[in-house]
Protein 1
Amino acid sequence: MKKMLFFGLGFIGITASTALALDLTALVREIEGQYNGRSSLATMQMEVSTAHWQRNLQLQAWSQGRDQFLVRILEPPKEKGVATLKIDKQVWNYLPRVERTIKIPPSMMGGAWMGSHITNNDLVKAARIEEDYRFSLQKEDEQTWTINGIPKPDAAVVWGKIVYQIEKKRRIPLVVDYYDEQERKVRRISFDQVETIGNRTLPLRMTIVPQDKADERTVLTYQQLIFDLELDPTVFSLGRLRTP
Amino acid sequence: MDDLRLAWKNLWRNRRRTLITLAAIAVSITLMQAAHNLSFGVYASMIDRGVRAGSGHLSIYRQGYLQDRDPKLGFNPQNLAAEISRLAGVESVLPRLYLPGLAQSSRDSRGILLTGTAPVEEYRINPFLRKLPATQMIREGNLRDALVGQRLFEELKLSFGGKFVVTLQGQEGELASELLRVRGIFTSGIKDIDRSLVLVDQHRAATMRGRPQQIHELAIILKPQADERWLLDQIGRLLKNHPQLILVGWQEAMANLADAIRLDYAAQKFIFLIIILIVTIGVINTLLMSVMERIPEFGVILALGAPSWRLQRMLLTEALLLGVIGMLLGSFGGSLATWYLRIEGLDLRYFVSSSLEFGGVVFDPIMRADWDLRWMLKMAFYVCGLALLAAWYPARKAGKISPAGAMRHY
Amino acid sequence: MLLTLALRNLWRNRRRSLLTLSAMVASSALLILALGVFSGMFADMLASGTEQYHGHMVISARGYQEDRDLFRTFAPSDINLQTLEARPEILAAAPRLRSFGLISHRTQSEPAELLGIDPGREARVTTLSQKLQKGEPLHAEDQTGALIGSGLARKLGIDIGGELVILTQAADGSIGNDLLTVRGIFASGDRHQDNALVLVQLGWLRQLLVLPNAQHEIALRLGEPLLAAPLADTLATSLPAGFEVLDWGDLLPQMRDAIAAYDVSRLIMVGVLYLATGLGILNTFFMSVLERIREFGLLMSLGVRPWQIRLLVLTEALLMGLFSLLIGVSSGLLLTWYMAQVGVDLSDYISPISYAGGTILPRLHAVFIFDNFFIPALLLLLISLLAAFLPANRAAKLHPATALREG
């Protein structure tokens, strides 16, 4: 799940399909880091539906590399200014209403981030996908590659398998499925609304659906994306958390 | 010797009275011995189980650790474990680590206590693990094997051999995550433990903590007849080289259990006191009656020139005989009862539906007695002493008899 | 006539009668005292397990207590508190709302349970919000006050007046956050309560959780906690559908078993004690019969029937029993009263003991329970009669002629 948010932060759009020997690891790294770049600034909308409620959030996000990011809520007004800062493996939340910053302790890392189907832990484990998984080509047809990601024996990840379905032509993800070790699908993330921004082509909308609660979902839609901008490093500091 | 024969004959002159008195003494002793030995057995097994699954008969910690169980207070045991195991009476020395953290599966996450142990020794000693089959034991040197509590296994929807990730905060505050696989499940009966315990090899826990050589606790398990005091002294000496470590007995480390047992024994003592009081009054009454009805006879003896202390001595002998015979009969009955309760035990499973926790340890619903010989001997001694004491008033009465008045008495 | 004869017979051998009486008085009085103190211990245990936090009984939506699902709420108008309190068995009722969240102070954060209470009502049902180690209880107007457990306070490094940041997920999915000030710290002895519980205002929590007009449960305090189970059944029938009533036995099954076990062991104690007493007085009664054989022979030759002789002996025994009962029970009452008012403080020797989910405090005291007097009294009479049975038979079977020759 971690990597999914990072989906939203930079896509090294190597759309030239010089498909020589297909380097799967590089491909997945591309996909996982499609919203990364060296740095990024994004505005997005997050829609969360659960059995009991539905929410719409307007977010602004900055990232530097894969280890630092900052997300602020712009709307709704009640939660405007709530921010999440991640540096390496530590996560803090800033709460403007009470003007306080809280560090998320290990026991809360399994909890939902901003009420969505993304967990705090997903954020932390972000984007080191190639360190934890080995990839193989399961299937290839005219349109798509289906790639299996199997965790390395000692990788500290909960999944048994991740399956990527990637569109060959534009090298964009279509669907990513997460399985447990008994090969039961636990989560599905689908991508659509493909656009070209600058020299990158990437899907602007991703939908996360937990498989045991089929009527729940989180939909993340990118409205604005700027890559490789110069970011003041102090953006990713606790001090700056309060004053945007 | 004459006295003894005379006393014996006197006792049997009124067979019914003597038999009833003996019955009172014997039955009371039997019941008290049976009840006490039952508690003794139950508590011995609770202590044993608590000690083996918990902190040992004696435990070593870093100063201040016991206050809050702060995971930051670890220590490097160096050679202590080996040195202590060499001492006579020590059955085993178990290293332990206790680290609070988070366990995550693909389905859910829970707060847990990651417990690092020495697997082979732990399986030998820990009563919760002893009944596990070999296929469910953590393999030595395998740092990914983990045992999880029954409830945790269910709540995280794990499977045997299935994986889960444990995350905890290291010594410097950084987060450490590791992959573990379910090797086996254990059930302690205590909800909190079954919901939160994850058992791994100590090296895995220590490395995650960021201090590979350190542990939190050395639990020392003693053999049944070990000389605890001598060992306290010896281990104390070994610890002189480790000034920041302390040695505590289980009574301190598991104060809850120690106090619970103490309270129960106190209650038992009170009830026994009442029983002994009643029986003693009964013996006094009996002896008094036997004196009263022999007054004319005593008068004759006194008139024939016997000193009154002879009379008193005979009475005391009678009392002592009553006491001794009653005590022997009672102890025999008590021993029979203890023997039966030791082998068969008292099965309370019909009455107690859930696992009953007392002082932090789970009650075994089948109560078994054990021989508390020291107590039984003490009790026997007291009863004989009391029998003599009971004779004091009647003997005094006998001493005051004047021969003339006695012979007139009817 | 029989009565005077019996009384006179008892009086004839005063010393013997007195000694026997003393045995019976001692056994009954001390037994009553012991039972009173033990019942006190168990009352403590039950109280500590239920009266601090759970209450004796709890009403909630069906299934709520299983998973404590935030969304299983009901409205205050669904169940009328006044109607509940109008029942004689129910002393007080308090509404509560519950959630789980992250509690933070400076750099420390811990997960904890937030229990929204109505302080006035809660104080009449449970003791946790009143019995504080430090600080003051919550006042109705203090909307941003909180009471936390001592273990949690220690972990967060917080004291009275300190500030807590609360972070949780509200019922509409939004991020609920607010500040609270610690007004008081409690130490219940229960690990969960002391390390992971924060008591807050019901109104404040409703706002934080965006659950206006909702509550999760109503906790009840009963006059007779030991009768909670049957009351729960009756109460359940009077509630609207979809609700369930759980008594402390359902919430704390261990405690229910412990108390049931105690009831059994109590009977065994009484039995054992009175067996010893009975054997003790058996001799006395036999003696008193045997030394009057000539007298009985005389009476029978004068026309007194055997059954009358038996009755005489039994009456003597009964009188003994009644006397010892009177003195024994009143002494027992006195001793129990003393232990109830003053008690014995063993805190220097023994720390609080956890048992079956409750705590037994080392401050021993007694409670007055009717059974603790009734059963020993009744059994004392029974034992007296039983002990007199054989001797009475012996007396009745006497042959007048042989009797007269005896002695």
Protein 2
Amino acid sequence: MPCAAFAGQAGNQLKESPLLSFLPDRSEFKGWAKEGDHQFFEGEDLFIYIDGGAEIYFEYGFGRVIVQDYRDEAGGRLSLEIFEMNSPESAYGMFTFKSSPRGKALALGDECQLADYYLNLCKGRYLVTITGLDQDSTPRDGLVSLAGLVEKKLGGGGERPSLVSLLPEEGLNPQSLKLFKGPLALYNIYPFYRKDVFAFQAGIKGDYANRYSLFLFEYAAEETAGGRFSETRVKFSSEPKYGHIQWDGELLRVRDDKGRAVLARHLGRYIILVLGEDNRETAEALLARAEKRLPAQKEER
Amino acid sequence: MTRSIERREFLKKGLRVGMTAAVAGPLLRPFAGHPISALAKDVPDIAVVGGDDYGRNALKAVEILGGIERFVPKNSRVAILANVQSSHPGTFTSPTVLRSVLRLCRQAGAKEINLVSWQALKNWESTGLAQVAAEEGASLKLIERDEANFKPVPVPAGKALTEARILTVLFEHDVFINLPVTKDHAGNKFTGTMKNLMGINSPANNRTFHKENWQTDSSAIEHLDQSIADLNMAVKPTLNLVDATEFITTNGPFGPGEIIKPQKVVAGVDRVAIDAYCASLWGLKGQDIVMIRCGQEHSLGRFDLKKVKIKEIRV
């Protein structure tokens, strides 16, 4: 049964909240003190906390979250959120969704990234977000210190989802990785369609130095992937935003309404798709590199 | 129940909350009209004012629209809906912008100014909006989420929503000022004037805007956007004034995310046009946002900015 303990609500419910032991106290987080009570939300009560924006967490697999604000002696404010997701893959996926392509990777937890005024970290099935509430005057050392304290309390880490290893490494911006567990995340990265045409089991996207993005959609079986690719080809033809459609029996080429090229093909349990400038040679080269990684990886799975 | 925080109480008692009973008001009192015919011909549909003094931008935007008196009659009761969804930077209405709007309402002779919301007091405090309200003599009307505090309003032309449930306290006012921040949204990519009205609709009713069991599927985004457009048929703000000064363009609506700083305040009556303009601030096209298209289909306004009279200045 979902339950929520709100700031200001008295009593044992707050003290007994799961995840409470992950919150550093004043003796650990030197110079900082908790400001107000923590908040705890479980299941669908996430909609109370993230009103109007919780769906993406559910798409990745949300369990519960604890939230605690901190204030330092100079008045600086940090907000700590610890999300317990359903699996390490869920936590990693949500981490990639929230990360900035311009952030700086830190060696903390399974993954950690420091952006202008916030930090995201994942470890095992936990996702930690720390936000400087005063933006430009955010004490970045406070962000990192708090992340380090929490990270030590989270226990063992997880492994990167195997899909990540299927992306060619050369030229890949590691900060650009986005793991999808459903259509909403994909739609936020590039709205191929408003409908869930790809209907993938999982997917990943990475950006490359040549200004191309590579998408890899994974399916449970080769037949499923093939069927879905056939349907995708039809949908590209019927969607007004796409034109210049070419199909040679293996490779699909289209151009979107912003003049970007889309190249896609089906291989085994995967659909591979390249999106970027309309340079045929570059796009095909990236596609070929991606294809080479798939068969070997597929046999291992 | 309504938690009302008056200025003197706020300043004297800090952040303690006083409890007062919500008084039932007229069922559907019309908000102040828009005497367009009395306006000078050069009054635009949308006023856009840029500059690093956000408070001044807000003042100037209203001035360009013909002045606050056009929207706030003397002795009127004014309800204001700000966005206090999150305290993360770039996700809530700027306190500086709110302060200017409150001062304008006072200048126009409003007898009562209330910030209406079912969001928690914590949100108001951590965003700094509660402090501004207290300093400027406005009251926080924080409504419990109990369905009894919301009035059913039929939406006969609604395609996804046939009945809205609007804060009852809103109908005790003569003027309704919609004061959102524009920003990203992980569902429909955009938040502006129209989506902000979910802040006066009951949380239970808002949940029907989203697919059951909270899974995203092929129709989820269309359903959400259509529901928002339908909701906007139930209530028409007297004035919309959008904080487009600093806002997130990723990880919306809650953040934290990438922030851009156009330093603009956008004001007007046409919600569709305003939203289309705000969407353009970060490269989106109004016609690509289903909610905006649905708004035009409901004749709430026009998204073709070439057909909208926009006056944009920098101060």
